[in-house]
Write a structure and sequence with these properties.
The protein is mainly beta and 375 residues long. It has two domains: 147 residues, Jelly Rolls (Sandwich); 192 residues, Jelly Rolls (Sandwich). The chain is 11% helix and 41% strand. The strands form five sheets. Strands 19-1-16-22-13-23-24 form a seven-stranded mixed beta sheet.
Length: 375
């Protein structure tokens, strides 16, 4: 599920259409046979047009293309740029990263996230997403298909129409991914009405932000089925000073627009998800699958900076100490197995929640190539 907040929304389409030296092309799947399964991630990689590969451009607009009749199956799109060394056109399922060609793992630089039902993505007049630089000559679209009834579908060629310009705007834009890491360490017990988890973008990483702050023009919240509320809080000098996108009825239809004029100057961003697992009998772990959970905010902003992802999870050492206090037998090896050994009642749930609120954090601060910026 997604929630979209558009901030400092770009000018009308006419202003974009009048811009000279534009290149438009489709980034879509090619007659994909959508499997009859609940969740499918399909990845399609293609080279950018020669004009973009030969000269630096900025992406200024993304328009959704949905194959008629398949609207109910297309859940969302993610777009990434790829380091082109070894890259060739590719199209196939990509849930299991271990089965993918090695070079596909270099498609890590987030360009955009688009949830089904959202409008086109327009860059502000003063900014655009850079394309065709630093060896990034290919684009990948990750299509999330949702087919819970496992119905047969017609061939699908959904995706996005990309518009870029060689008339460079003042600022390079980018996407910052914040929230929790998809790790079993961040898990929710069953039969909970409102269990919160927090993902921190902490000072160890925000120290890489420009001192004048970043200007946010879109924020896209993403979580899965158990999330009932999600928001990102802005902290400065240890005090909460505001929120960047909040949805207390997550999963409801419709879009929300707002305005946030001042730049975001922050020493901590905290993305919170509140989970309802009353219908579940087992732990819900963080992960990419539809039955797992995520708690992510894709923040579209400018000017571009080195940080591409700023997320957190509790440290492994503190989690193992928690399991020892709960007398989890040593025969349980994986984190998921250890959680499964606990009898989840009012007392154990309260202790887990207190642990999550106070535990030391492992901060993941990554650049566009997935390299850690902090030790």
């Amino acid at each position: 599920m997604w929630r979209l907040l558009l901030i400092l929304y770009a000018a009308a389409a006419g202003a974009q259409d009048s811009e000279a030296k534009e290149v438009s092309f489709n980034l879509t799947g090619l007659n994909v046979s959508v499997p009859r399964q609940t969740t499918t991630l399909w990845c399609h990689v293609q080279p950018m047009p020669e004009a973009i590969r030969m000269k630096r451009h900025q992406l200024v607009r993304l328009d959704p293309i949905i194959t008629p009749g398949n609207e109910e199956f297309v859940h969302h799109f993610m777009i990434f740029s790829c380091l082109s060394e070894g890259a060739v056109p590719f199209s196939g399922e990509c849930q299991d990263h271990s089965t993918l060609p090695e070079w596909v793992h270099r498609c890590r630089n987030s360009i955009a996230a688009w949830p089904a039902g959202a409008p086109p993505i327009l860059m502000p007049d003063e900014a655009g997403l850079p394309l065709g630089e630093n060896g990034h000559q290919h684009l990948m679209i990750e299509i999330h298909y949702h087919n819970p009834s496992q119905l047969p579908t017609q061939p699908d060629s959904s995706g996005m129409r990309v518009t870029a310009t060689s008339r460079l705007r003042r600022y390079d834009a980018a996407v910052l991914q914040t929230g929790t890491m998809w790790s079993d360490a961040m898990s929710v017990p069953p039969k909970q009405e409102a269990f919160p988890l927090h993902g921190h973008c902490a000072p160890e990483c925000t120290s890489f932000f420009p001192p004048e702050g970043i200007r946010v023009f879109a924020s896209m919240l993403h979580a899965h089925k158990t999330t009932q509320a999600i928001w990102t809080s802005i902290f400065r000098d240890g005090q909460k000073i505001g929120e960047l996108n909040r949805d207390d009825n997550f999963g409801a239809q419709g879009q929300h627009r707002d305005a946030l004029e001042p730049p975001v100057v922050s020493d901590r961003l905290v993305t919170t998800c509140v989970h309802n697992t009353m219908k579940r009998v087992n732990m819900t772990h963080s992960g990419l699958g539809g039955h797992e959970e995520m708690c992510i905010n894709y923040i579209h902003y400018y000017p571009r900076m080195e940080v591409a992802a700023c997320q957190s999870q509790v440290t492994n050492a503190s989690l193992q100490a928690f399991f020892e206090r709960e007398n989890v037998p040593r025969s349980a090896k994986s984190v998921a197995e250890q959680f499964a050994k606990i009898d989840w009642n009012g007392s154990t749930v309260a202790r887990l929640q207190e642990y999550y609120e106070t535990a030391p954090l492992r901060i993941h601060c990554l650049d566009e190539l997935g390299k850690e910026l902090i030790e």
